[in-house]
Amino acid sequence: MAATEMYTRGQPGDQDNRGESLVQQHMDRMQQQKEAVAMEKLRLLLPQMGDMVRALALARCEWDIDQAVQMLRSFHSANLDKVNLINKKRKKIRDDIENFDEPKEGAAAGKPSPSSGGSSSSGSGSGSGSDSDTEERKGKQRSSKR
Question: Helix (H) and strand (E) counts for the chain?
Fold first, then answer.
């Protein structure tokens, strides 16, 4: 005589479509928190390394922070010249980006603001009396079209 099988949902052989269990969801959340904490600690311990390098090291070390730090430090010391060259290039690119943005901000700061509050609601931004200047230009355009 065959043992009877008890099914609590559907028929024998039906596909289980219930989704992840609460235990699995909890384990996923715990893993995400563990990964976030590990990334933050590694960022504080090795700020010279990039985010992608730190993430790869942690994933390779199965999120063991001490092992990842040891691996990255040994890599850094073994390839010191190459890493320094890469850091110099990275710093130059960051400086170029910052210097590219500064002239725009400097030019905007040199212009007089249309109002003392700093908001530019008039749209033209050409200083005081801009509304009357705009009205005069509109009047001239209308008269020239006639």
Answer: 5, 0
Nearest one of 52, 76, 14, 82 to 60, comparing CA atoms: 52
- Angstrom distance (rounded) from CA 88 to CA 73: 19
Q: Model confidence over 104-142: pLDDT tens digits?
A: 555 555 555 444 444 444 444 444 444 555 555 555 555
Dist CA 94 CA 102 (whole Å): 12
Closest residue by Cα to residue 31 from 6, 52, 62? 62
> Nearest 5°: CA angle at 104, between 102 and 108?
115
Q: What is the identity of the amino acid at 53? A: V
